[in-house]
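User: Predict the structure for this protein chain, please.
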Amino acid sequence: MKQTLPLAVVAAAIVIFLFFLSSSKKPPFLPSDDIHKNATTNESCAPCHAPGKQAALKNTHPPKEQCLICHKLRK
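Assistant: Here is the predicted structure, written as structure tokens:
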């Protein structure tokens, strides 16, 4: 019984941590417009989102060559 309480506390802490991790801000979906409907490769994002382009990504944006890992088309 003495070993059960610490194990339960650790398990509860892990569950709470995973809950907050999964509820964090999720990346936005790709817009449902004509420009983005054919975005099937990461290279298709560069014409607009590369540095110096019309919709350049901020410097704080995560790895910029893995767009479609995070951003998905809305189904």
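The chain has one domain: 4-70.
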